[in-house]
Every structure is written in C-alpha cells, then in structure tokens.
Amino acid sequence: MQAFTRLNGLVVPLDRANVDTDAIIPKQFLKSIKRTGYGPFLFDEWRYEDVGQPEMDCSNRPIRKDFVLNQPRYQGAEIMLARENFGCGSSREHAPWAIADYGILCVIAPSFADIFYNNCFKNGILPVVLKDEEVDVLFSETQSHEGYKLDVDLEAQTVTTPSGQVFTFEVDDFRKHCLLNGLDDIGLTLQQADNIKAYEETRKTDVPWLFV
C-alpha cells in the first residue's frame, strides 16, 4: 500500500450529504475482487447518461456535464470535499478501491460511515473529519477559486488553505502509523514474517504429525 504523508492537491467539491457506497460504485461492479480498474466507474450513475458495466470502455460514454467529476476545472483532483455521513450504506470495500483508483487520496467531510472510514485507512486513503463550519468554508473557497488546492499533513494532522488558514483533525495513533508507513493488514502481518516462520518450525518439532 502506498504511504500517505503529506499532500498538496487540487480539491473537488461533492456537495451532497449521505452519499452511499452504491452511489460511489454501483452493485454490478462488485463481481470483481481486483483492487484496480474501478476509477472510470466511480459515481457511475451520476457521472454518465447510460448504465455502466464491468470492463466497459468509458472513453465514449455520454457524460453528465453538470456533475463535478466531469467539469474541466476539477480534472486531476486528489482531494474530495463531501458532506456528512459520507460512505454510508453497504460495507463494500470496492468503494474506497474506486476512489483510490480514480486518484483521490484524501476525503474531507464532517462525518463518515464507520465501515467506510475504516476501509479508507486500509487502502491508502486519508479520511479527514472537520467541523461543519470548517467544511462550509472549504466548499465556499473551492467553488469560488478555480484551481483551489489544500495542503493536508498527516504527521501534523492539519489541513491548510492557500491563504494560510489551518484546520486540525484527529486520527487514531495506530491508523496514523499504518498510513504513514504504507501498511495494510498484509503489510502488518509481513512485519512478523520471521516470527511466523520460527513458530512454524517449532510446531514441526512439537507436533510433527500435523505436518505429515
């Protein structure tokens, strides 16, 4: 998993509350368990006029021009602004997979659904919880200034605006450590590879009949 330390990125504002995981990545895309390839289908039903299907070529699909991800000023965005209860609905891990595959590395909102929030950390995405009034400020500035960027510093736990205004956020120490070091569940396990191997060798001596 790619580590997240500090990001200075273009912001895209998704001004909707209670965005559920079926909107983030619709159910027909859950057939695959690969972590990649979902970016073109992120917010599929809001982004396109037709219905998307897995492995579909999206280059010539009719788009909804008024949707933020389709607006030229937000192309290449790495930070998403959202409203409360982002990521609610089903627990599908495909939702953060799609967000990350699109190129969004940080989502800022007043609140997140618990399972989605946890899944973000496991997939290299930093979910930042700010106060409602702070998120309101960021929405206003993003929509008023084309090319608006934020500086998100995980180590310092700060979000800094172009004018120098600083907002602080809380993050669990363990989750922070894992994200700073690019450690998902597999990475954490592999840190104990030598101990696991030593245990297996001991078991072969203690209970050899299990290894026949």
Could you characterize what this model shows?
This protein has helices at residues 21-24, 44-47, 94-102, 114-122, 132-144, 173-180, 185-190, 193-206; strands at residues 6-13, 79-81, 106-109, 126-129, 149-153, 158-160, 166-168. By secondary structure, it is of the alpha/beta class. The chain is globular and about 70 Å long. The protein contains eight helices and seven strands, in the order E-H-H-E-H-E-H-E-H-E-E-E-H-H-H. Helix 3 links the parallel strand 2 and strand 3 (106-109). The protein has a single domain, classed as Aconitase, domain 4. The chain has a seven-stranded mixed sheet with strand order 4-3-2-1-5-6-7. The mean pLDDT is 92. The two termini are 36 Å apart.
